[in-house]
Structure formats: structure tokens, C-alpha cells
Amino acid sequence: MDHQKQKIGVLVMSYGTPESLDQVEAYYTHIRRGSPPSPEQLKELTDRYEAIVGGFFPLRENTNRQVQALEETLNRLYPEHEFVCYQGLKHAAPYVEDGVRQMAEDGIRQAVGVVLAPHYSVMSVGGYMKRAQETADSVGLPISYVKSYHLHPSLIEALTERVVNMLEKFPDREANPVRVLFSAHSLPEKILEMRDPYPQQMMETSEAIAAKAGISSWQFSWQSAGQTAMPWLGPDILDTLKALKDEGVRNVLVCPIGFVSDHLEVLYDLDIEAQNVARELGLHLERTPSLNTDPRYMETLADVVVSKWKEGV
């Protein structure tokens, strides 16, 4: 009977986004650790959101749908248990801490945390885990974490299919071969000194997709670096596009493997900013569709969550 099923909490963590334009200032103040953006910075940020969505914020809805779809997938594939998914956002409510506290309040006694990002870095996924664990310790909730899933077969299959399908968008690809650019959010260069696995995992995902798709003309490029005094990982994708033009490349397909839904970094940094640069350079640029609620991505998450839960049982 249902009431006898073991209830397992799943903390689904992601970066978060403002839900409307009037929340942009508070959101970026949180990102900047309490320091509000200047009027000029706020205008630039607001303009970016307006450029892609006209005030409607798809990322929050995308994340909500992903969490709901994951819960449905878990309960469909593993009906002997009852999985309940909770959101924990880095820079918006419900915060990571809120999700953990809600699980404890709901009587959850077993929990798994997973981040909507396949690649591990101590500065990204590691930060989510640290915040979740501190709150879990304070409320006495046992929780384990999925660190990364960047080579999961279902994930690679879903991304490969997108690359193969989008190559059809280049009718002249026999005469002008397509260069596939895999991309992800840049991080400060100091992670290299820490022997952080993030860059290596990005290359491993790229290599796996290229091998499965039978692609030899590809490379990796970083995007969306922060505007700080410290150097960030490069080359940046805008510089890469200029280099490709000089190399004689005319067709470019971007596959943003570091993002699993339509983030600002995809909808603005790639679809608007990179696309404008490509047009100026005379390049034909396309982008693979985001994973969003692709069933294979949901199955990837469900599989790694259940595997991690079983480790602790």
C-alpha cells in the first residue's frame, strides 16, 4: 500500500533566476554577496533579460518543469518507493537551505542531493553541496550527493542526437564543413591550481559526443566569464568565432554542454551576443536545443539519484 512506501527526498539544486524584472536587483545583490549592482550594471542586466524574454522569465519555469518531470520519472521507474523532489536554489528562493529545512519539516529521513549541472567543480556543485550539508547537519537530516554525471550514456545520447540533427541546418556542409564548438560556463583560472576536475570533465563529455556522432572537426570553448579582476578560463567563445573566421571556417554549430536548460547564458550570450558576432563575421552559426525536460535527461538524473541512494542503504 502507498502509505507503507519508503519516502525519499530529492534536493534538486540549481543556480536560480529572478522570476520577474523587478527581482533582478535583489537577485544580483545576492550573487554579489550583499553588494547591490550599480545603476549602470543593473540597466545592462535588465536589458539582457528584456532582450530575450520581454519580462517573461523562462528559466524559472524550465527549472520548475525539470523538477516536476524528475519526480514523475523517479516514481514511474521506481514505483516501490515514493520520491519527493524539493528545489534548492543558489541565488533565489527557495534557497538550498530552504529545500533542506522543508524536507526535514515534512518528515523526510533519507535524502539525495543532485545539481542540474552534469560537471563537478568545487566552485559550483561543490558549493551547493556545502550549503546543503551545513543545513542538513543542523536539522539532523542524512543526505548524500551526486557529484557529477557527465558521461552518463543517456545524457551523451541526448546531446549527440541534438548535434547530429542540427548538422542538417547546414545545407552546404559538404563544401564548407561544420566546426562543432562545445561550450560551458567559464570559471576563474584559479581552479586549475586546485586540480579541479571541471575542465577535464568538459573535455570528456565533448570527446564522448564527438565520437558517438562521428565528428572530427570540433573544439571546446568557454563562455559567459564573470567581469572580475581575476583571470577566467579561456578562450572565450566570441574570440573563438573570430579565430575560426581567420581559419576559413564558415559554418559553426555550438553545443552548450555545460547548460541543461534555457539559461540567460544560452538565450542571450549565445542566441543574441554570439549570433551578432557571427553575423558580423559572415559565419553561419546554429545552436543545439537545450535538454530541458528531455526524457533521457530525466532518466539520467533518476538513475544517478537512485544509484546514490542505494549506496547509502
UniProtKB/TrEMBL annotation:
Classification via SUPFAM superfamilies: Chelatase
Functional note: Involved in coproporphyrin-dependent heme b biosynthesis. Catalyzes the insertion of ferrous iron into coproporphyrin III to form Fe-coproporphyrin III.
Entry keywords, A to Z: Cytoplasm, Heme biosynthesis, Iron, Lyase, Metal-binding, Porphyrin biosynthesis
Catalytic activity: Fe-coproporphyrin III + 2 H(+) = coproporphyrin III + Fe(2+)
Family: Belongs to the ferrochelatase family.
Ligand binding (Fe-coproporphyrin III): Y15, R32, R48, Y49, Y128
Matches recorded under PANTHER family: FERROCHELATASE (PTHR11108), FERROCHELATASE, MITOCHONDRIAL (PTHR11108:SF1)
Binding site for Fe(2+): H185, E265
Compartmental location: Cytoplasm
Presence of the UniProt keyword Zinc in the record: no
NCBIfam families referenced in this protein's UniProt entry, alphabetically: hemH
Pathway terms, separated by semicolons: Porphyrin-containing compound metabolism; protoheme biosynthesis
Protein's gene: hemH
EC number: 4.99.1.9
Protein name: Coproporphyrin III ferrochelatase
